[in-house]
Specification:
Number of helices: 10
Order of helices and strands: HHHHHHHHHH
Largest sheet: none
Structural class: mainly alpha
Distance between the termini: 17 Å
Length: 198
């Protein structure tokens, strides 16, 4: 999804990220400064692109797969620096996310060929707008199920109570697995089979 139709989707994901960060850190400054900055960047993307054109031209010299990987890894900086929460699993989440991103970037064409029938069936059953909405929901549900062992803590995301108010400590393996599953599920929901590699 691109252009004007992609802006509401991007803003929606920013709002979701800001909400999750608020649940973990309760930082108004982060929500306003970072969230507002990302939304402004989406709205003013053309003006920003004009000012950064020299840098963008130099980036075009980087091989396409490497460039795509760098772009896809950029959001993971958040989880490495900010996503530690009470679990200390920021590195595990970042590593798993990088693994999924690398697989998509470098094995994407082979994956498209192998999963062509799946993508066709998925597209018949689920409209793209619905898949875009389902992707973050799926990720959150998988994370809670794998990390906590149940969905009992899910109400905590909406101001409810939970019997385990802190994320499990020293459970980086669970976070790694949860990120792998959530990332893979998101790719299966959003990947458009046959995407061009260059």
């Amino acid at each position: 999804m691109s252009g004007r139709r992609g802006i509401p989707v991007f803003i929606g994901y920013v709002v979701l990220l800001a909400w999750l960060d608020w649940i973990i850190h309760r930082s108004v400054v982060f929500v306003i400064v970072v969230g507002g900055g990302l939304v402004a960047a989406a709205v003013l993307r053309y003006r920003i692109a004009e000012r950064l054109q020299p840098l963008l031209d130099r980036l075009k010299e980087i091989p396409v797969p490497v460039r795509r990987l760098l772009i896809s890894l950029t959001p993971l900086v958040y989880f490495l620096l900010r996503g530690q929460g009470t679990s200390g699993a920021g590195f595990a989440v970042t590593a798993a996310g990088a693994l999924v991103a690398s697989a998509v970037v470098f094995l994407g064409p082979k994956m498209d060929a192998t999963l062509a029938a799946f993508f066709a069936t998925r597209d018949r059953l689920l409209a793209r707008w619905l898949r875009v909405l389902l992707a973050p929901v799926f990720g959150i549900l998988v994370a809670f199920l794998v990390v906590h062992g149940s969905l009992a803590d899910l109400p905590a995301l909406f101001g409810g109570t939970t019997e385990s108010p802190q994320s499990p400590m020293d459970e980086s393996g669970r976070f790694f697995l949860a990120t792998l599953l959530a990332g893979t599920g998101t790719v299966l929901l959003l990947r458009e089979g046959g995407e061009k590699t260059r």
